[in-house]
Backbone:
C-alpha cells in the first residue's frame, strides 16, 4: 500500500472501483437501470442524518411535538430527494461514438450521446473518466438527447482499450450521490508521436525506364520533379519554396514523382536510436511524404507495405507504425 503512495481510504476506493470495473461487460452502449446504478449519501447527507438523530433525541427527551414534526418533515424530504436523485439517472441511454485515431501525446475527444424517452428532463448529469475528477455537466431534455465530449490523454502508441467512464448526479438536494460505471468496448488506435525536427526524406530511387534526375530530391526533402504551372492545378501541387526563389509558379509533376520509388526503411532511421525514436522518425517521414503527394512505401522488421499515395496509404502506414 505504501508503494502506491495512496491514502488508505483512497487505496480502498481504488481497489473497489477496479473490482467493479472487472465485473462490467464491455459495450459501446449502456442502459442505466436499477441493476447498474448505485446510490450512497454524500457528506452533506451524512450530516443531515446526524442532524435528524439529534433532533429526534431532543424531541423524545423534552417531549416537544414540534420537534417530532420537524424531524419527520426533514426525513420525508430526504426520502423524496433520494428517490428523485436515483430516478434522475435511471432510464438514461448512453452511446459512445467510434473514436478516431490520434497521435501519442494528444488528447483524444470521446464523444458520448445521452438520450432518454421519459417525460421529465434530467438535470445535473456529470460524465468523466473513472480516475478523474474533471466532470463534464449536461442536462438531458424530456424525450430528447444531449452530447458530451471528454478528453482522454493518449500517452502510449498502439491499440488501447477505451477508458472506463463514470456517470453521476447529485440532483436535486445534493444529499445523495447516484453513479454508474461504464466500460466501452471500442479500442483506440494511437499513432506514434512524430519526431519534432526530423531529417530530410531518404533519397528516392528511379524505377526502370525513368530519369534518375527527376526522381531525386533536394537536401531540404522537397522533390525536384516540377513543371510550369497550369491553370486548374490544385493549390497543394504548387511548390511555394521554388516560387519564393524564382518568382515563377511551378507545380509538382505527378508523373515524374510517381516514376520514383521512395522507401521509408526502418533500417535507415539510425542504428543508435531506440525503437520508439525510430518509429517517431518514420511517422514524421510518412506525414512529410503524404504532404508532398509522392509515391512511397514502408519497410518495417518482418513487414513491408507496398508503394502508394494518398490518405489511404498514409493511414495504412501509420497503423503499421502504431502496431509495430
Residues:
Amino acid at each position: 500500500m505504501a508503494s502506491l503512495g495512496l491514502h488508505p481510504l483512497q487505496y480502498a476506493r481504488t481497489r473497489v472501483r477496479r473490482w467493479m470495473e472487472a465485473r462490467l461487460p464491455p459495450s459501446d452502449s449502456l442502459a442505466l437501470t436499477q441493476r447498474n446504478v448505485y446510490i450512497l449519501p454524500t457528506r452533506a447527507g451524512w450530516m443531515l442524518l446526524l442532524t435528524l438523530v439529534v433532533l429526534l433525541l431532543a424531541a423524545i427527551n423534552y417531549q416537544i411535538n414540534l420537534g417530532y414534526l420537524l424531524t419527520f418533515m426533514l426525513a420525508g424530504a430526504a426520502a423524496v430527494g433520494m428517490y428523485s436523485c436515483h430516478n434522475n439517472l435511471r432510464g438514461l441511454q448512453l452511446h459512445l461514438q467510434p473514436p478516431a485515431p490520434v497521435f501519442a501525446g494528444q488528447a483524444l475527444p470521446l464523444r458520448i450521446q445521452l438520450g432518454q424517452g421519459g417525460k421529465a428532463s434530467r438535470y445535473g448529469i456529470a460524465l468523466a473518466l473513472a480516475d478523474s475528477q474533471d466532470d463534464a455537466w449536461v442536462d438531458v431534455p424530456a424525450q430528447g438527447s444531449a452530447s458530451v465530449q471528454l478528453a482522454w490523454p493518449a500517452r502510449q502508441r498502439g491499440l488501447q482499450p477505451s477508458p472506463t467512464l463514470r456517470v453521476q448526479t447529485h440532483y436535486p438536494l445534493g444529499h445523495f450521490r447516484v453513479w454508474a460505471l461504464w466500460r466501452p468496448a471500442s479500442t483506440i488506435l494511437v499513432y506514434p508521436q512524430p519526431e519534432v525536427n526530423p531529417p530530410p526524406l531518404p533519397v528516392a530511387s528511379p524505377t526502370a525506364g525513368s530519369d534518375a534526375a527527376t526522381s531525386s530530391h533536394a537536401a531540404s526533402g522537397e522533390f525536384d520533379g516540377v513543371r510550369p504551372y497550369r491553370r486548374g492545378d490544385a493549390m497543394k501541387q504548387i511548390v511555394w519554396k521554388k516560387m519564393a526563389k524564382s518568382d515563377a509558379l511551378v507545380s509538382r509533376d505527378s508523373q515524374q514523382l510517381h516514376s520514383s520509388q521512395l522507401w521509408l526503411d526502418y533500417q535507415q532511421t539510425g542504428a543508435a536510436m531506440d525503437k520508439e525514436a525510430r518509429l517517431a522518425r518514420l511517422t514524421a517521414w510518412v506525414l512529410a511524404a503524404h504532404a508532398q503527394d509522392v509515391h512511397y512505401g514502408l519497410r518495417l522488421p518482418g513487414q513491408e507495405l507496398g508503394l502508394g499515395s494518398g490518405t489511404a496509404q498514409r493511414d495504412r502506414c501509420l497503423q503499421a507504425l502504431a502496431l509495430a
Summary: The radius of gyration is 30 Å. The chain has eight helices and 18 strands. Confidence is low (pLDDT under 50) at residues 208-223. The longest helix spans residues 65-89.
